[in-house]
Amino acid sequence: MSAAIKALHAFFTPAGSGVKPAEAILSDLFNSKEPFLSKIATFDNCIQTHQALEPVSEYLFDLMMGHHLERFHQEPNFFESKEWMDIEDKTLERGTELLNLLLYIIESKDAEVVPTLEDFLHEFLLVDEDEFQDEHRIYEPLIAYQEAGEAELESLREIEQSIAPDSEIKELFVPIVCFFQYYHLPTLPSEVTATLSTDEQSIVLALLAYYHA
Questions:
Q1: What is the crossing angle of helices 57-72 and 199-212, to 10°?
Q2: Which of 35, 65, 157, 161 has the lowest CB atom count within 10 Å?
Q3: Per-residue pLDDT reduced to its tens digit, 175-199
Q4: What residues make up the domain containing 113?
């Protein structure tokens, strides 16, 4: 987990930002055994103190949530427990769709299956099932990307530009695609990093790579 947080420094460490102390705070917090809801106030105080992390704060929130669930997801009926119901109720407006991919990575490791975009969409998110049409709507750009024959890197930006500005996965589209295409490589090809247009996208892809490692 500390390695995933360290990924922030490669792309997003303005001089004098105070990001490095935040790394230690967040690493300790993520690995703490205190209840998840108790961690939120500490997390928010850390982000408020280290404003350089604000643009990626909700991705870090996803990382904290994913790490918590990785410890407990195999407990019988955890997702029917009062603890999980309370977490869901109090975090409805927190985090991003990145959490779904983190949970998928956890599951694929447990099942020892090779993570693929097709498996993520159709077997994990069940976007083809009638009761999961909200997921189908949210992830439609990724579904369309598959149907387009897995476009080359230079086409990703064009597809991203066609995604509605208020889409939950607009900023995540390119990092998600690049993760599935290149997660198995020790380093990203230079043409991939050139495809990432913002520091936030670079951070998301780095976090995914570290999380999967």
A1: 10
A2: 161
A3: 999 899 888 877 777 777 777 777 7
A4: 96-213
